[in-house]
Design brief:
Length: 122
């Protein structure tokens, strides 16, 4: 679904980068010495702040049930952004392209519910 809605895609990736940068900051100690990477501990679930922000932005009235696949892809995206930032790959001007390709390959077709007449998105 991410690739079908460009405004969603932009907001999605902005939030992924924001939360990944926050996680990297939290992974550093006060004196700046890096701790072990927390990449494997990052998760997105229905009870997380990231999920809440994404859902409230595009599903304000909670009309649609968010598919588990979306949560899975969100978690992969968050970990990819985190890994790139943690390892310093974000210093390259094109650093996000690899992440976009990974997520694009995981994307699935637009659900039929979004194609129905009267759908607020379709």
């Amino acid at each position: 679904m991410i690739k079908w809605f460009s405004n969603f895609r932009e907001f999605f990736y902005i939030q992924m980068e924001r939360f990944a940068r926050q996680a990297v900051r939290e992974a550093l100690t006060r004196d700046g010495a890096p701790r072990v990477s927390r990449e494997g501990q990052l998760r997105v679930g229905r009870d997380t702040e990231l999920y809440r922000i994404l859902n409230m932005h595009y599903n304000k009235s909670n009309v649609y049930q968010v598919p588990e696949r979306f949560i899975e892809i969100s978690e992969v995206a968050l970990r990819e952004f985190y890994s790139a930032i943690w390892t310093g790959r974000d210093s390259d001007p094109c650093w996000k392209k690899g992440i976009y390709k990974i997520i694009c390959k995981m994307d699935s077709p637009v659900p039929d519910a979004f194609r129905l007449p009267g759908c607020p998105i379709g």
